[in-house]
C-alpha cells in the first residue's frame, strides 16, 4: 500500500487529476485481487496438479493427435481451463470437509492456516462449480462435468470419503474417468477404443490411489475414516505392493497388445520398471514425507500412461 501511495504522489507531481488517480487506484486494486486469487488457487491445488491438470491436458492433446489435427492453441487452452476448474472445485470442497484432518496432516492448507475463511471457501466453491458446469455445457461435455460435481458432493459433503471402498476404488476411479473422458470430449466424442483405455487406466489408478492414505493415517483417524491403511494395518504395504506389481501385467494384457508399434513395448517395459520401483518404495516407506513422494510417483506414472497416445496416436 505504501508503494501505491508513493506512486500516487508522483503522479500528482506530474499534474494528473483526480480521475486519473482513481483509475490508478482501481487498476491496482484489481491487480492485487487477481494476484490474491491466484495465490489462493495455488495453495488449494498445488499438491494435485499431476493427478488432474497435467493428465487432463495431455488427454486433449492425445485426442488432437488421434484425429490428425494440428495442435490447436485454442483447444489446449480450453483443456487447461477445464482441468483447472475440475481440480479447483473439488479441492475446495474436499478441504472444507477436511479442516480437522488438515490441522494435523496438512496445516499449511488455506483453511487450517487461516489464509482463507470458511465463508470465503464456500463462495469460491459455488463460483468455481458454476463456472465448471458452464464450461462443460458450452464445450459439449456436460454429462461428465455434472457427474464429477455429483461425485464431489457425495465424496465430500455426503461422507463418501469415510470408507476406503467409496473414497478411492469408486470415486477416484469414476473421477479419473470423468477427467479423461471429458478432456478427450473437448475435441471429439471418445470412441469405444478410447473409452476402454480410459476405463482401464482409471480403474488401475483408483485401486492404487489408497497409497495417498498412507501419509494421512493420523488425521484420518481423527476424521473417523476407515481407509485401507487403517483397516489392514501392517498388512497394507504388502497388499498394495502386490497390487502395484500386478498392474503392468493387466495393462499389458488388456491394452498394450492392441498396439502394433514396436516402441509401445518399450512403454510397457517402462511402466513395469516404474511400478516395481514404486512397490519397493511402498515396502520401504517409514515416514509421511517418504510415503507422500511414493504417491506422487504414482501420479507421475498416471501422467506417463496418458502420454502414450500422445506419442503413439
UniProtKB/TrEMBL annotation:
The chain crosses the membrane at residues 130-157, 169-189, 235-257, 263-283, 295-312. It comes from the Eukaryota. The keyword Transcription does not apply. Its main location: membrane. The keyword Transmembrane applies. CDD domains: PT_UbiA_3. Keywords: Membrane, Transmembrane, Transmembrane helix. One of its GO terms (cellular component) is membrane. PANTHER family: CHLOROPHYLL SYNTHASE, CHLOROPHYLL SYNTHASE, CHLOROPLASTIC. This is UbiA prenyltransferase family-domain-containing protein. It comes from Mycena pura. The lineage of its organism: Eukaryota, Fungi, Dikarya, Basidiomycota, Agaricomycotina.
Amino acid at each position: 500500500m505504501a508503494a501505491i501511495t508513493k506512486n500516487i504522489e508522483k503522479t500528482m507531481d506530474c499534474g494528473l487529476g483526480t480521475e486519473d488517480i482513481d483509475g490508478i487506484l482501481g487498476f491496482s486494486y484489481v491487480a492485487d485481487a487477481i494476484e490474491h486469487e491466484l495465490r489462493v488457487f495455488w495453495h488449494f491445488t498445488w499438491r494435485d496438479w499431476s493427478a488432474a491438470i497435467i493428465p487432463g491436458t495431455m488427454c486433449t492433446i492425445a485426442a488432437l493427435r488421434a484425429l490428425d489435427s494440428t495442435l490447436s492453441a485454442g483447444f489446449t487452452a480450453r483443456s487447461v481451463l477445464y482441468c483447472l476448474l475440475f481440480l479447483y472445485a473439488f479441492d475446495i470442497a474436499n478441504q472444507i470437509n477436511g479442516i480437522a484432518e488438515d490441522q494435523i496432516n496438512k496445516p499449511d492448507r488455506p483453511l487450517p492456516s487461516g489464509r482463507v475463511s470458511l465463508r470465503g471457501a464456500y463462495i469460491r466453491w459455488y463460483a468455481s462449480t458454476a463456472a465448471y458446469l458452464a464450461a462443460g455445457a458450452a464445450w459439449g461435455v456436460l454429462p461428465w462435468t455434472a457427474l464429477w460435481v455429483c461425485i464431489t458432493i457425495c465424496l465430500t459433503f455426503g461422507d463418501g470419503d469415510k470408507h476406503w471402498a467409496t473414497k478411492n476404488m469408486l470415486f477416484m476411479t469414476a473421477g479419473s474417468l470423468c477427467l479423461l473422458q471429458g478432456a478427450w470430449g473437448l475435441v471429439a466424442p471418445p470412441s469405444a477404443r478410447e473409452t476402454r483405455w480410459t476405463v482401464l487406466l482409471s480403474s488401475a489408478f483408483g485401486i492404487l490411489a489408497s497409497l495417498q492414505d498412507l501419509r494421512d493415517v493420523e488425521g484420518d483417524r481423527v476424521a473417523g475414516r476407515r481407509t485401507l491403511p487403517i483397516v489392514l494395518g501392517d498388512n497394507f504395504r504388502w497388499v498394495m505392493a502386490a497390487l502395484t506389481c500386478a498392474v503392468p501385467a493387466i495393462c499389458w494384457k488388456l491394452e498394450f497388445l492392441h498396439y502394433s508399434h514396436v516402441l509401445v513395448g518399450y512403454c510397457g517395459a517402462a511402466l513395469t520398471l516404474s511400478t516395481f520401483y514404486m512397490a519397493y518404495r511402498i515396502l520401504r516407506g517409514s515416514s509421511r514425507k517418504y510415503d507422500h513422494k511414493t504417491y506422487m510417483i504414482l501420479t507421475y506414472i498416471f501422467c506417463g500412461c496418458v502420454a502414450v497416445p500422445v506419442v503413439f496416436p
